[in-house]
Amino acid sequence: MSGSAPPAPAWRHFAFFDATPVKDAQDLAQTPEAFRDAGRIAAVASGQSTVVLADHQGSLHCLSPDFEELQAWVAYDGGRALLVKVSGVKGIIVSLGEDASQTLVLKVWDIRHLEKTSGNPRLLGQARVQQGQRPHPATVLSLTSSLSHIAAGFADGSVLFWRNVDQALSSHAASDNAATVTLAKPKAVPSFSSEPITGLEFWTSAAQQQALWIVTTSKVWSYTLTGKASGNAPTITDELGAPLRCVASMPNGDMVLARSEALYVYGSEGRGACFAYEGPKTLIASHGSYIVIVSPPQSPSAASASPTVRRYVNNRNGKVLADVSRITLFDPENKLVAFSDTIESTITQVVSEWGDIFLVLLDGRLIRLEERSMDHKLNALYSKNLYLLALGMAKSKNASIAESSIIHKRYGDYLYSKGDFDGAMHQFIQTIGHLQPSYVIRKFLDAQRIYTLSLYLQELHAQQLAGSDVTTLLINCYTKLKDVERLDAFLKADGPGHSNTGELHFDLETAIRVCRQAGYHEHALYLAKRYQEHEEYLRIQIEDRHDWTDAVHYIRSLGVAGAEPALRQYGPALLANAPTETTRILIDLCCGTFEQPSEEAQQVMSPVAANEAGPSYMSYLSLGGKPASVAKSTDALDSPRLAPERARKPERTATNRTVRESSPVLPKSIDLPSPRQFFAFFIDHPEEFVTFLEAIAAQRWQQTLDDATDTSRETTMLERAEQQAIWNTLLELYLTLKGLKSEGTPSKAARSQAREYEDRAMKVLRSVDIPYTINQALIVCTVRQFVPGLMLLYEKLGMFEDILRFHIDRARSAPSSSSLATDSARHVVQALDKYGEGRPELYPIVLRFLVSDAQILTRHQQDLARLLTYIEENKIMAPISVIDCLSQTEHASIGAVKEYLRKHMLEERAEIEADKALIASYRTETAKKLKDLEELSDLNAPRIFQVTRCSACGSQLELPSVHYMCRHSYHQRCLPDNETSCPNCARQHGLLQDIQRSNERYPELFLSEIEESEDGFATISQAFSKGIMDLPKISKEMTPPMQ
């Protein structure tokens, strides 16, 4: 075309394709054989990895990717092939041609299956096209991808179409021997124009009805094939037509129409986009998202409107110029020219297959246009800073998100270098998930860019890719900007920090921590309360806001399982600042008077484990110290996150009796927390401690000081230990508070309170039902110097000697003339009178005490005399012991004990006289025994037996009789056979012999008994008394001989 043609639009031009000639696989110097004679080629079709060539001799050729002939057969014997299409059904092609009689015949081929006889592809179906008396040449052939419809357009403006072709061919495809199907007679589109048909494209309407675009040289028509509107005359869609071969179908189903002034796109809603691209066009085709535009041959000129032609002329350097065709690849999505070049020949066919474009030239050459790699194209765009084009190209090529993010990053870096920080951030946001956030964050850490940075951080949270550090940074950005509104929006449930389902997009713990550090306590409280971070909520209220009352109410709402760990952590601080409310909630917790949580809350609550039993805790605490400070611990509570409980009833403040009457007792089946774990909290609050313990005893076990304690209830060992710990601690508290109220110069009210606590302590000690530990109580009374209680415990334990020694020690520790010494001495005597009966060990103690001091002895002369008389009458002490006791002090005179000594000496003298008479009788008897022994030992001395009666039966002694040397005589019949010893004496001697045998074994244990004995001399004396030292001698003397 001449250079005076109107200029083309200034689309950006790029070289995204490389043009290379295609050579024959067998002869690299030649073009592929199928294209050497381009003039015989009637049509070329491609699709489904198949390229089919139709020639004017009536043959069809299937080509390989190397353009070698795979199959060739005569489709129209004696005729010619005009049009050919490759179906969307694999292996199926449709051809339209003239047979020998110049009748148009439509044929459907299956190139995957061959006829057994001819070896040609199987002919599935055919239809003869009857055009009337004046046939016109076929111009266009079109078919649906499923082969349900086929349409043919003609030069006279008529259009024929076949319906349900796929169904008609289905029976043939199922059998190898089926005959060729004769397709039904085609339907004719109602006459609508006499202009040649230049384009046919099937499309689907919005109502899912099959329709057909019909393009003539001056108009675009729409014809409905299915549905209610089928059969109606075509309707005009546009008053623009197109030349033959200037209509193409895009992969998305749109139809592109090329005119000299522009490209027009038609979709299901009619005409769509229009791309101005001036210049004559002889052919267009589609290749992916590209539109291939072929211009007719023209004489090249340096003054041409086409830069491609001008560049061609300049490169020829004055050589003879032949006519050239211009090939252009237009990208409608990105509005750029991907390739443009001139070719010194006429382009007759354009083939798009195997990812490349092939240009068939009239001079027999075949040119391949191979698309360059995506990286190459992107680098070309990067070099010109055309990042938006790069993004559009990546999208059109279905690039992955990772590949697109690289473009966004480079575009962001470019905008950042130009100072467009907002635009740069918009690009960086698109890289989230593929670019390290730290790369972006470092760029925007400057104080002037905090707002922009917050947008990026917020998007990170929205995509759930933010870590705790990112959350910290974002909230800090809001707080630095003092942007409370955005902070509220971020943290609230409907803000960008949450998904549509309410799921958090940020780390909750981090958000709460940062809000606290920045002083935004209300926001931290909102998060903690909404998402049931109970420990965090309490930490803020107690450590930051010091709202003790709200903290107590919140703990109450958590139920037993949630309140227990919260009180374990914050109990001391709450008691220091809200003692009454805290004590009340502790009582409710340990007594089971909490309202039980809902079933949903119970599902997330873990059971509270009871602690091990133990004694009183007050022994380990010191009272009167400084108030407990708030623990600044950052450790989480040792409990799961709990759902908040139902709203509580108003609290009631009442005495122990009132609480006991109004508060229900929790059933035994529910485990209650151990109150001992809270004992340490009351270290500086003894009065609240008393209230706490008394209420627990009353409500949990019905144990009070005033009422009768229920002892019929069965208790476990653990409950028993809990009860003992309660009452042990209460006893110590009573005595401690008594001492505190009595310190210094107490007021009347203080003295009254001290007496009240003393009375309570005595009630505990006197009770037989209250389960306190008596040994623990003894220690407490001793430490607190509570004399009435100590005396009561000594009496309960039977420690009467300790009672005496206590009063004795007090009397001795005080000055002799003091009232304390006088009273203590009187208590000693009274205690002896009360407990002395049956306890002789107490009298020596009192005796030593009474003579230990002159004043005591003077005041208790009568008591001393009475004591000595009782000792003498009951033989409690030996006189020598009394004398020894009295001699150890210089205060006891002889006159004080003269009467006792005189009386005792007379008794001793009488005893001596009696002992002397007894000794004389023993001597007489001994002499007699010795004389008998001497007679028995003399075997030659005669023995006269004068016994007249039997010692066994007692009757008159008769012969035969037996006489023993022991002077016993028996009838022989009264004696057992072979009896050699006197039966009467044998019994006495047998007992002695048993004792002797026992004593013979005794020496084996003699030494060990001496070592273990407290009085070794007594043990040795006992051995002598048993005759252990002379056993053989005794044995011989005890066996008398028989006559």
TrEMBL record:
Source organism: Mixia osmundae (strain CBS 9802 / IAM 14324 / JCM 22182 / KY 12970)
Region of interest (Disordered), ranges: 631-662
Name recorded for this polypeptide: E3 ubiquitin-protein ligase PEP5
SUPFAM superfamilies: RING/U-box, WD40 repeat-like
Molecular function GO labels: protein-macromolecule adaptor activity; ubiquitin protein ligase activity; zinc ion binding
Family statement: Belongs to the VPS11 family.
Xref: PANTHER family: VACUOLAR PROTEIN SORTING-ASSOCIATED PROTEIN, VACUOLAR PROTEIN SORTING-ASSOCIATED PROTEIN 11 HOMOLOG
Domain RING-type intervals: 950-985
Enzyme class: transferase
GO BP terms, alphabetized: endosome organization; intracellular protein transport; organelle fusion; vacuole organization; vesicle docking involved in exocytosis
Keywords (A to Z) from UniProt: Membrane, Metal-binding, Protein transport, Transferase, Transport, Ubl conjugation pathway, Vacuole, Zinc, Zinc-finger
